[in-house]
Write a structure and sequence with these properties.
Layout lengths: L10 H11 L4 E6 L4 E4 L1 H7 L3 H4 L14 H14 L1 E9 L5 E12 L5 E10 L1 H20 L4 E2 L3 E8 L7 E8 L4 E9 L4 H18 L5 H12 L9 E9 L4 E7 L3 E6 L2 E6 L15 E5 L5 E5 L1 H4 L13 H13 L6 E8 L10 E6 L2 H5 L2 H10 L5 H18 L9 E8 L3 E7 L7 H8 L3 H8 L6 H9 L2 E4 L5 E7 L3
Antiparallel strand pairs: 1-2, 1-5, 3-4, 4-5, 6-7, 7-16, 8-9, 9-10, 10-11, 11-14, 12-13, 12-15, 15-16, 17-18, 18-19, 19-21, 20-21
Helix pairs in contact: 6-7, 12-15, 14-15
Length: 497
């Protein structure tokens, strides 16, 4: 073992050896035949081998067996051609455990060019690799937290997200509230990158979903989001964001800027970056935010972008003759060329227009069951226009209502007539009215008995004829009401609040 008080060494050499022996990095020196002639204390600590166990041995004693022969061939080729090699190696300690090292090997040659020694410098990066693995896993989880692209009768959404590193400070989200006919969304960018920004993004997602469901103007929603998230911001952190609300009843777009001050609008009226002022999130707990409202129409294209995209847009960009997909591809190409920040693209295309809320009134006279089945395509298409869910199930339940009316109609009258009407009320619900010409049925009494026991009774009578039709109607429709005589039934289905 080398001691600091060796008297036969030059003072400078003694100091140098003393320093080498106390480095954090492992130092290993071999002769020209690759036999170990020196190792410092850090290498002993890293490998678990003592100086006595390694001196005179080949460094391959540390090999893990997990690198193929090609790996070592390339290493020796670099040493022969360049005089050095550097890379990451997975080796094995004396106790059998694996460790990652960053290894640098330098060739020492004599004046005649022949090899005299190899010096290896080893840095333990096991913990770094473990942390890197965790970060990669966290990155995958973060990606899964973002909502998927979607296409509905109302809109289609297409997104693109690229972090600068593994974990992004960008976030985006949307909530489609069909019962309100409103689409809410946000694109944001936390200052910084990495785990802290990713955690802030997770907190913001939860707060956004909780607050957005409150029936408040968008500016007040953003104010509450800022106040609720303020405690999560450190002194030197803040977030830039843009929030939007699309109301399909009024065909309007409401925007609140919280630091992201523009969005791309491509409409029949023009193609431009719309600029709007707004305070950052996390700057002041009681900050106030302002709304800007714009009219929208079928075919309009909106793109909300994080700063990583906005800052790299060319000053003049031609958006003429661009459809939704083409705009997306142009923006994506800008990001893929290389940006020095996290980048998010959030695109929306409006797929329905001002005719979305038209009232519908229909009346039919049914003389045979076939007359009713002939109406299936027309009625189901109307339900689809109203954007009702589970149209086929509604049709099935309506069929039960018609069958019941046919069964309880005036049996003495061979030429039966059933009156069916269909009406939408303020686009919130659809009402079917079925009236027969019979003596009536004690429907309301049966409805009252079954209320609160629908699931239980449904299982019992699923394969029975008696009472099954009424149960199906009660299960599918939100309200089932008979008139006093019992020959008229109202079936109410809520489409939205």
């Amino acid at each position: 073992m080398i001691k600091s008080d060796f008297t036969d060494l030059d003072q400078k050499l003694r100091f140098a050896l003393f320093g080498i022996n106390h480095l954090n990095d492992g130092i290993l020196i071999t002769d020209k035949n690759n036999k170990i002639v020196f190792l410092n204390r850090s290498l002993q600590k890293l490998t678990g081998y003592s100086e006595k166990e390694l001196l005179g041995k080949n460094p391959k004693i540390l090999k893990s067996g997990l690198h193929d022969s090609k790996f070592y061939e390339q290493m020796w080729q670099s040493l022969e051609e360049n005089g050095h090699w550097e890379g990451e190696v997975l080796n094995r300690r004396k106790d059998g455990t694996l460790f990652y090292e960053r290894l640098k090997i330098i060739v020492i040659k004599k004046n005649d060019g022949t090899v005299e020694n190899y010096i290896a410098i080893l840095s333990d990066i096991t913990e770094e690799k473990r942390l890197e693995k965790d970060i990669i896993a966290a990155s995958k989880i973060q990606r899964q937290m973002f909502p998927q692209d979607i296409k509905t009768a109302f809109f289609q959404i297409k997104t693109y997200y690229k972090p600068k590193r593994y974990i992004s400070g960008d976030f985006f989200d949307y909530v489609w509230m069909k019962e309100r006919w409103k689409l809410y969304g946000v694109v944001g960018d936390f200052k910084g990158h990495g785990i802290s920004a990713g955690l802030l993004m997770s907190a913001m997602k939860v707060i956004f979903h909780n607050v957005i469901r409150e029936r408040k103007p968008l500016a007040k929603v953003v104010k509450k989001i800022n106040a609720s998230s303020f405690k999560y911001f450190a002194l030197d952190t803040f977030a830039a964001a843009i929030f939007f609300e699309i109301d399909y009843r009024t065909m309007t777009l409401t925007i609140v800027s919280a630091g992201i001050n523009c969005f791309l609008s491509i409409t029949k009226k023009g193609r431009k970056m719309v600029k709007i002022p707004g305070m950052f999130l996390g700057m002041f707990e009681d900050a106030k935010f302002e709304e800007q409202t714009y009219s929208i129409s079928k075919g309009d294209i909106l793109y909300f972008l994080s700063d990583g995209v906005i800052d790299n847009l060319p000053r003049k960009m031609d958006w003429s003759n661009c459809d939704f997909q083409t705009v997306y591809e142009k923006l994506k190409s800008i990001v893929e060329k290389g940006v020095n920040d996290d980048a998010t693209i959030f695109g929306i295309e409006i797929l329905i227009g001002d005719d979305v809320g038209r009232e519908i009134k229909k009346r039919y006279k049914i003389h045979t069951i076939d007359d009713f089945y002939a109406l299936k395509e027309e009625i189901t298409n109307i339900l689809k226009e109203l954007h009702a869910d589970n149209v086929d199930i509604i049709w099935m339940a309506l069929t039960e209502g018609i069958n019941n009316a046919w069964l309880h109609g005036n049996k003495r009258d061979e030429k039966k007539t059933i009156h069916l009407s269909m009406k939408s009320i303020r686009h919130k619900r659809v009402i079917f009215r079925i009236r027969d010409e019979g003596s009536g049925y004690s429907g309301n009494e049966q409805v009252k008995k079954l209320q609160g026991h629908i699931e239980e009774e449904f299982e019992k009578r699923l394969f029975e004829e008696s009472g099954r039709g009424l149960l199906i109607m009660m299960k599918v429709f939100d309200r089932v009401i008979y008139n006093q005589k019992g020959n008229e039934i109202f079936l109410v289905k809520n489409i939205s609040e």
